[in-house]
Amino acid sequence: MCADRNGNPPRYRRILLKLSGEALAGERGRGLDPQILEVMCSEIAEVREAGVQLAVVVGAGNFFRGASGENLGISRVTGDHMGMLATVMNSLALADSLEKKGCPAAVMTSVEMKAFAEPYTIGTALSRLEQGSVVIAAGGTGHPFFTTDTAAGLRAVELGADIMLKATRVDGVYTGDPEKDPSAQKIENISYQRIIEEKLRVLDLTCVSLCMENSLPIMVFNLFEKGALVRAARGEKTGTIIS
Ligand code: UDP
Fold first, then answer.
1. Element (H or E) spanning 53, and its range?
2. Quick one: CA torsion of 209, 95, 227, 52, rounded to 10 degrees?
3. CA atoms of 43 and 131, how far apart (whole Å)
4. CB within 6 Å of ligand 1 — which residues?
5. Taking the mean position of all CA atoms in its chain, how far away is CA 84?
6. Fewer CB in 10 Å around end: N or C, the chain?
7. Residues 6+ apart with CB under 8 A from 117
8. 176: Cα separation from own chain's centroid
9. Measured distance CA(160)–CA(15) in Å, rounded
10. What CA–CA distance (Å, rounded) separates 90 from 114?
11. Whether 40 contacts 24, CB under 8 Å
12. How far, in Å, are 10, 42, 45, 122, 234 from residue 53 at the CA level?
């Protein structure tokens, strides 16, 4: 296991990283940006090389969200199924990019599609993590009416992660939307309860309550800040801690 620059071992043994689909689209807003994939996978590979077990859940906002299907006359359940399938596309792209860097990655799907990826089970995911693969848990929870934030919280809890890292476009939780309101203040530490009571939209509230019930801390950090994921994995505070 590699030490950090001060000679300390990585603080976290196992981490769940939640990436939004939009993050993978970069400036394009839709689809996949190869440069973003490259940067993200380099950081993920670095975290793994430092001896931290890493499970990843990725969303699908860059391709399709179930709720938006209603505008196209597609029913919510079908739309959510399409959204979950889109997370598999992102997961396959991420795994491909990681493997090309020499970083072993296993895509595991909540809904069986054995020709593309292994079915997700807690036991198999844990053994892949122990073997040193990055586990990409695709297909959300496998159920409509949930989001990939909630899938990420669920995987984090059931895989015994020490923390869930939620990568966003901003560097933490703010009192308002920092992209719209210049007076919005960054909050360094915040309770699950306050996020729920104030309905702060930084992540899905079902996910927050699941993490609260299971005392799983969440760190919200800026995905586009160079080295932020590596620092967060070392236990350095780079964003807001929800606990
Ligand atoms: N989804 C679902 N169940 C889940 C996870 C995801 O039905 O357990 C569907 C839902 O339609 C959602 C879409 O997949 O809108 C993509 O996930 P999400 O919106 O969380 O992606 P992100 O915003 O993180 O890119």
1. strand 53-58
2. 70
3. 19
4. 20-22, 59-61, 65-66, 79-80, 83-84, 87, 140-141, 143-144, 146-149, 151
5. 14
6. N
7. 88, 91, 92, 106, 107, 108, 109, 138
8. 22
9. 9
10. 17
11. yes
12. 10, 15, 11, 14, 12
What's the CA-to-centroid distance between 143 and ligand 1, angstroms? 10
pLDDT digits (tens), the chain, 243 positions: 445 566 666 689 999 999 999 999 988 889 999 999 999 999 999 999 999 999 999 999 999 999 999 899 999 999 999 999 999 999 999 999 999 999 999 999 999 999 999 999 999 999 999 999 999 999 999 999 999 999 999 999 999 999 999 998 889 999 888 888 889 999 999 999 999 999 888 899 999 999 999 999 999 999 889 999 999 999 998 899 999
User: 39: CA distance to ligand 1 center in Å?
Assistant: 23
Q: Is 35 exposed, middle or buried (0-12, 13-18, 19+ CB in 10 A)?
A: exposed
State the residue for tokens 């190869």: 34
The ligand 1 atom at the shortest distance from the C-alpha of residue 23 is: 25
Residue that has been written with the tokens 């994995």 in this structure: 233
pTM attached to this predicted model: 0.95
